[in-house]
C-alpha cells in the first residue's frame, strides 16, 4: 500500500510517497481503507521540524484523521465493525496512507449522508473548538476573538461561538477576502493578523490557533477576567517571557491557558466527535474544503499550507 512519509524534515519536498506493507490491526485496533485524510496545520508544523522537542524521526507518516471503511479488526474488537464506514483518529501521525490503523475508542461511525471529505474536515476540528470554548468559559453575550480563524479549527470555533450566543465573534486573518468568507460563516468583526481593525475594545475570550511572537499583544486585549486559550502554534512558539504581560496587568485578573484534547476524557471526546459529525450531516456546521487532492500530491498540499493560501482544509484521497 502507499503511504506518505516525511523522509526529510524541512520543506515540503521532504514528503515522499512510499510503498509499505499493509499493517495488521493489533488488540483493540481497526484497519481502515482510507477514502479521505485531512491535511491539518499540525502536520505542517511537524514536517517543518522548526519546533524542537517534538521527537519525530524520518519515516514519520503525517496526518491524524481518516474516513473510510473498516477492512479488518484486531483482537478484542467486534468483527461486525468490518464493512462499516467510519471516521477515525489515528494519533499524531499515521493518516496519509491507504490503510490506516486506529484504536477502536477513537473510531466513530459515519452518519448517513456525510461524506468522507467533510468528515475529515470536521471530525477533529469541531471537538477541539468545542472543548476550547468550554475551557475558556465562553458564555452567551460574551465577546470572543478567534486568532487564526481561516483554518478548519478556527472556522469551527467561529461557527460554534456564534451558535453559543456570543455577542461578538471577531477573527484575525491575512486578507479582506478571507475576512469576507469568515463573515459569511458568522464572524462579526474582521481584524488583520496583528489584531488591527474595527472590533471590540476588549475580549472575554481569545481562542488562539497561532501563538507566535505576537501572542503577548493579544493578552493586552483581554477584558477584566478575560481568558486566553492557546490551542495551536501555527505561528511558532510565543516569546519565553510572554507571561510578563499578564503580570503587568495583575489587577485585571486575566488568565492564560493552553488547551489540549489529551486532557478530555475519552468517552466525552468520542461523544463530541459523534455529535460533531451528526451536526455536520444535518447541515448545522460547514465543512470548508479548500481542495481535494490525490495522496501523491501531499507535498503540493503542504506547499500551499506554507504559502498561506489555504482557507479551510485540504483533503487527500488515496
Ligand atoms: N489543542 C488541541 O487539542 C489540538 C488538536 C488538533 C490540532 N491542534 C492545533 O491546531 C493547529 C492547526 O489548526 P488549523 O489546521 O485550523 O490551522 P491552519 O489551517 O494551519 O492555520 C490557521 C490559520 O492561521 C493563520 N496563520 C498561519 N500562520 C500564521 C502566522 N504566522 N501568524 C498569524 N496567523 C497565521 C492562517 O490564516 P490567515 O492567513 O488568514 O491569517 C491560517 O489559515 C495546530 O497548531 C495544531 O497543533 C490542537
Q: Under the CATH scheme, which class of the largest domain?
A: Alpha Beta
Got a strand count? Answer: 15
CATH-scheme architecture of the largest domain:
Alpha-Beta Complex
Find the CATH topology of the largest domain: Quinone Oxidoreductase, Chain A, domain 1
Describe this structure in words.
There is one protein chain. The chain has two domains: 176 residues, Medium-chain alcohol dehydrogenases, catalytic domain (Quinone Oxidoreductase, Chain A, domain 1, Alpha-Beta Complex); 122 residues, Rossmann fold. 26% of the residues lie in helices and 27% in strands. It is built from nine helices and 15 strands. Strand 14, helix 9 and strand 15 form a beta-alpha-beta unit. The longest helix has 16 residues. It starts with a strand and ends with a strand. The mean pLDDT is 96. NADP nicotinamide-adenine-dinucleotide phosphate (NAP) binds next to helix 1 and helix 4. The site of NADP nicotinamide-adenine-dinucleotide phosphate (NAP) has 29 residues, from helix 1 and helix 4. It comes from Microlunatus sagamiharensis.
Amino acid at each position: 500500500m502507499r503511504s506518505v512519509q516525511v523522509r526529510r524534515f524541512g520543506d515540503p519536498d521532504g514528503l515522499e510517497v512510499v510503498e509499505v506493507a499493509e499493517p495488521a490491526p493489533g488488540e483493540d485496533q481497526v484497519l481502515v481503507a482510507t477514502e479521505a485524510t485531512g491535511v491539518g496545520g499540525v502536520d505542517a508544523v511537524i514536517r517543518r521540524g522548526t519546533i524542537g522537542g517534538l521527537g519525530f524521526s524520518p519515516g514519520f507518516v503525517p496526518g491524524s484523521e481518516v474516513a473510510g471503511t473498516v477492512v479488518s479488526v484486531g483482537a478484542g474488537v467486534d468483527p461486525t465493525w468490518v464493512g462499516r464506514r467510519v471516521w477515525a483518529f489515528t494519533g499524531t501521525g499515521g493518516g496519509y496512507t491507504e490503510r490506516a490503523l486506529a484504536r477502536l475508542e477513537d473510531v466513530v461511525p459515519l452518519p448517513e449522508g456525510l461524506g468522507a471529505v467533510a468528515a475529515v474536515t470536521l471530525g477533529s476540528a469541531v471537538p477541539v473548538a468545542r472543548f476550547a470554548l468550554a475551557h475558556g468559559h465562553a458564555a452567551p453575550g460574551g465577546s470572543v476573538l478567534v486568532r487564526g480563524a481561516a483554518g478548519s479549527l478556527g472556522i469551527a470555533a467561529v461557527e460554534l461561538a456564534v451558535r453559543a450566543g456570543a455577542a461578538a465573534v471577531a477573527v484575525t486573518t491575512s486578507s479582506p477576502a478571507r475576512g469576507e468568507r469568515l463573515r459569511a460563516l458568522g464572524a462579526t468583526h474582521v481584524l488583520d493578523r496583528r489584531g488591527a481593525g474595527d472590533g471590540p475594545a476588549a475580549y472575554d475570550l481569545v481562542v488562539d490557533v497561532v501563538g507566535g511572537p505576537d501572542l503577548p499583544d493579544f493578552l493586552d486585549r483581554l477584558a477584566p477576567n478575560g481568558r486566553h486559550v492557546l490551542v495551536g502554534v501555527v505561528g511558532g512558539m510565543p516569546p519565553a517571557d510572554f507571561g510578563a504581560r499578564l503580570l503587568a496587568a495583575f489587577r485585571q485578573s486575566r488568565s492564560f491557558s493552553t488547551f489540549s484534547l489529551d486532557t478530555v476524557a475519552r468517552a466525552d471526546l468520542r461523544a463530541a466527535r459523534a455529535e460533531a459529525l451528526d451536526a455536520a450531516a444535518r447541515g448545522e456546521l460547514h465543512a470548508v474544503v479548500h481542495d481535494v487532492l490525490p495522496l501523491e500530491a501531499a507535498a503540493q498540499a503542504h506547499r500551499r499550507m506554507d504559502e498561506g493560501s489555504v482557507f479551510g482544509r485540504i483533503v487527500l484521497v488515496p
